[in-house]
Amino acid sequence: MPEGEFFERRSAPRFYARISILCLNPANSRVYFAKTHEISAYGIRLIATEAIEPSTRLNICINMPDNGEQINVRGDVVWSKKLNDDHYMVGVHLTDSTLKPIPIALRSIQACL
After folding, report:
1. Residue 27 burial by CB count (10 A; 0-12/13-18/19+): exposed, middle or buried?
2. Quick check: 16 and 102 in contact, CB under 8 A?
3. Three-state DSSP state, 107
4. DSSP string, 1-17
5. Strand ranges (DSSP E) for 11-106?
6. Residue 3: what pLDDT?
7. Which domains does the chain have, with CATH numbers?
8. Residue-wise pLDDT tens digits, 49-81
9. Is pTM beyond 0.90 here?
């Protein structure tokens, strides 16, 4: 690849959306509170209030801000990084999702208007 040329390695576009979510670790029934940062058809980057270890399996409930609909997906934590004393950025790969990120992102934007 020529120097300076950009190559996109992501398999799906990502959309910025701030939506409240609940994450449940089914192995120990631990609940995590978070907000989405970005969503795609295959993953979610979220901001959590506490650390979530990589390889943690999560059941995720996305609470849509426009009408309260709950969208449930499952995923595995791929990476986790501390942002500051109160927040962690967490990458989740969705394992059995038919998530449609464009309508979710548009609905979250519309709810803010």
Report:
1. exposed
2. no
3. helix
4. --TT------SS--EE-
5. 15-16, 20-25, 30-39, 43-48, 57-63, 70-82, 88-94
6. 63
7. 15-112 (2.40.10.220)
8. 999 999 999 999 998 888 888 989 999 999 999
9. no
Q: What are phi and psi of 72, to 5 degrees?
A: -105, 130
* Token code pair at residue 6: 């950009």
Q: Which pair of structure tokens corresponds to residue 74?
A: 């499952």
| 8 Å CB contact between 81 and 49 | no
Token pair, residue 43, equals 């993953």
Given a contact cutoff of 8 angstroms between Cβ atoms, the answer to whether 18 and 37 are in contact is: yes
Residue 103's identity, in one-letter code, is P
Q: Is the pLDDT of residue 48 over 80?
A: yes
pLDDT at 102: 75
Alpha carbon distance 24, 62 (integer Å): 12
Residue in this structure with the two tokens 């595995």, named with its chain if needed: 76
For the record, the structure tokens of 112 come out as: 């803010």
At 46, the amino acid letter reads L
